[in-house]
Design goal:
This protein is mainly beta and 76 residues long. Helices cover 12% and strands 50% of the residues. It has one domain (2-74). It has one helix spanning 66-74, and strands at residues 2-7, 10-16, 25-30, 42-47, 50-60, 62-63. The longest helix is centred in the C-terminal third of the chain and has 9 residues, at 66-74.
């Protein structure tokens, strides 16, 4: 299981109880870039030569806290 924790629309952490997932990189592309500084914006290709501005966040998958995993498995 992979868990993405967010607060206020921002990714706070990415974690997993699967050892094969831990340590991998997760990339979050946020097209709601209003108010972002110009140096934070990237032009993300959309096809047919078009692009959209977005911010990019990179996160490493960490270890999922065991009680959280147990709770989520018991409460699907």
């Amino acid at each position: 299981m992979i868990v993405i924790a967010m607060e206020g629309g921002l990714v706070q952490s990415v974690s997993s109880d699967d050892l094969a997932e831990q340590g991998k990189e997760v990339v979050v592309i946020d097209y709601d870039a209003e108010g972002a500084d110009a140096d934070e914006l990237h032009q993300i290709p959309q096809g047919e030569g078009e692009s959209e501005p977005a911010t990019i966040g990179r996160h490493e998958v960490g270890v999922l806290f065991k009680p959280v995993a147990e709770y989520l498995k018991a409460n699907p």
